[in-house]
């Protein structure tokens, strides 16, 4: 049996390649969760900013 048969491109053991590929996937998942949470909080803050009770009252002339 050829010892290079169990290697990816003849260079890396599949177990090592899987271990190395796991790190970016975990970083992407955690980063995506953090970005989603930040965007949700930003949306909530913008809703609070534009609520009607905090906007100034504008006096319009009465309709004639």
Give a structural overview.
The structure is a single chain. 56% of the residues lie in helices and 0% in strands. It contains 1 helix and no strands. It has a domain at 11-48. It is rod-shaped. The chain has one helix at 14-49. With 64 residues, the chain is mostly helical.
- Number of distinct beta strands: 0
Profile the largest sheet. none
The Rg value, from CA coordinates, equals 28 Å
Molecular shape: rod-shaped
Which class best fits the helix and strand makeup? Answer: mainly alpha
Put simply, the count of helices is 1
Overall pLDDT confidence: 82
**Low-pLDDT sequence parts:** none
Element order: H for helix, E for strand: H
Beta-strand percentage range: under 5%
Q: Helical content, roughly?
A: 55-70%
Distance between the termini: 97 Å
Layout of secondary structure:
Layout: H1 14-49
Provide keyphrases for this structure:
1 helix; single chain; mainly alpha; 0% strand; 64 residues
How is this structure best summarized?
With 64 residues, the chain is mostly helical.
């Amino acid at each position: 049996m050829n010892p290079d048969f169990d290697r990816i491109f003849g260079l890396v053991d599949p177990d090592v390649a899987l271990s190395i590929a796991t790190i970016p996937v975990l970083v992407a998942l955690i980063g995506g969760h953090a970005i989603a949470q930040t965007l949700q909080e930003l949306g909530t803050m913008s809703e609070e900013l534009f609520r009607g009770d905090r906007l100034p009252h504008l006096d319009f002339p009465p309709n004639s």
